[in-house]
Amino acid sequence: MDQKHEDPHVDAATGMPTTGHEWDGIRELNTPLPRWWLGIFYATIVWSIGYWIVYPAWPLLTDTTKGVIGYASRIDIGADMARLKAQRAAQAAGMTDATPAQIKADPTLFQIAMAQGKAAFGDNCAACHGVGGAGARGYPNLNDDDWLWGGSLPAIQQTIRHGIRVAGDNDTRVSQMPAFGRDGVLKREEILAVASHVRELAGLSTEPKADLKLGRKVFADNCAACHGATGKGNQELGAPNLTDAISLYGMDMASLTETIANSRNGVMPAWAGRLDETTIKALTVYVHSLGGGQ
Fold this sequence. Notes:
single chain, mainly alpha, Cytochrome Bc1 Complex, Chain D, domain 2, 3 domains, ion transport, hydrogen ion transport, electron transport
């Protein structure tokens, strides 16, 4: 594309002067901006100067200019948060000395706990358990009545306070399933057989070639001590019920053999110290009320 620089001249068609630039025979008109547009433009410049003077605007080495009126939205946010904290403290005053059971039995405290618990759940728990508590692979569904450690109010409160497998917390929930394959306790065929038996316990279909007789023997020798002879589980040990077809990591053969061979060791944070006791009580009541509380 050719670009020519020539002296400005007046365009015959429009009567407007040109800039002297030409591209492929097309000349660029030198049309002035509308006065109203220029007026607004200059007004914004004046406005910006006034804004710099009146409001905090210019960054300094360690702070910013404060402005004539000293206003900052952070001041309003801080004041709003302080008012909200005071309001919540007044509303939840009755929860301080009440147990979760007493809170749930009191309609006023229960309503406050549900609102506070829902907010706390969304901020701290939903990332793993989902917004509605339905869970995901590796994260328990809090809406059903299948609990590793119990779904009563005291049990839920204990789990929230101290978490699961938290290092340095003597009251944390701890269970340890052996890695039967990785540690060489069971052979490959024994792992496949006991996995088929677990599906049998849950009322699920098994492969025609599955050695269920071997699976039952392996289960009785290695698994029944924690899960029970009939696979009903033991909440005191955190051993899941294997008869309800509900599993954190799946009941298909691939997932079961992986669990048996290498074990699973999920971790949940301990919220004591991170959340105040009133919030933990509200969370306890909220989780218990999701639908799976015992």
